[in-house]
Amino acid sequence: MENRSNSRVNTYHTKKPKQYASDEMVFGIQSVTEILRSGKDIDRLYLVKEGSFPEIQQLAFERRVTIQRVPVEKLERITRKNHQGAICFVSSIFYAKLSNVIVGVYEKGQVPLLLVLDRITDVRNFGAIARTAECAGAQGIVIPARGAALINSDAMKTSSGALSHLPVCREVNLEETLKYMKESGIKIVACTEKTDNYLYEIDMSGPTAIIMGSEDDGISDELLRLADHHARIPLVGQVESLNVSVATGVVLYEAVRQRIFSDNEPPVDEGF
């Protein structure tokens, strides 16, 4: 029993650190402090559990950056350099304010079509979703401040440039965010297998926000309770679920169909 335990420890400490692009990661107390002062958007901020970082904590509070307290082993898996107990990742984009996005959409005379991603953590899934959302005419993506994919160079590449055009809003509390959307006249549609209602029965021609859930366990119960409608995609094969980026495309383009082709035959796109 003792040998097996030692084997686990040795393997743990010799595990190769995950590779990150150097321009996305900042480490060390002074460097992290300065990046927080710079006004750049931060995707992740890790501080070692046992450490005291009063200035970083104050700046993070002022900037509404979520701090994750982690064991030193996690920091050492990220980098073997002298991190001094503090590591952060700089976002490749600037986050938009949701209220500005919604007001802007209404002022342009457009019908809101927003996407809420509940704990989608795979970077390439996120990039693919952003690409589809931009192509479908969605005006914004909402993600949680904690438990979302890093918006890094991989996400930018997978989105094929869509993240340069599509606003991303990072919200501390998705429950409060959904309530705000509903107060703004936006219908909430949750895409989940926990319903008998098919996607095609839901009217998404008006102002709509679509929630897509985590790759592991779908949409959280708290968000499901706040949704105006639950909708499922019919599956007729043997596999029980779709990849979340594929499912998002199905749902978004049903909204597009309803908005553009409601009572008319769709035009033929000769360039397709």
UniProtKB/TrEMBL annotation:
UniProt keyword terms in alphabetical order: Methyltransferase, Transferase
GO cellular component terms, semicolon-separated: cytosol
Coiled coil: none
One protein family per Pfam: SpoU_sub_bind
InterPro entries assigned: Alpha/beta_knot_MTases, Ribosomal_eL30-like_sf, rRNA_MeTrfase_TrmH, SpoU_MeTrfase, SpoU_subst-bd, tRNA_m1G_MTases_N
Stored NCBIfam families: rRNA_methyl_3
Protein name, UniProt field: 23S rRNA (Guanosine(2251)-2'-O)-methyltransferase RlmB
SMART domains in alphabetical order: SpoU_sub_bind
GO molecular function, one term: RNA binding
This protein's encoding gene: rlmB
GO biological process, one term: methylation
RNA 2-O ribose methyltransferase substrate binding domain boundaries: 25-96
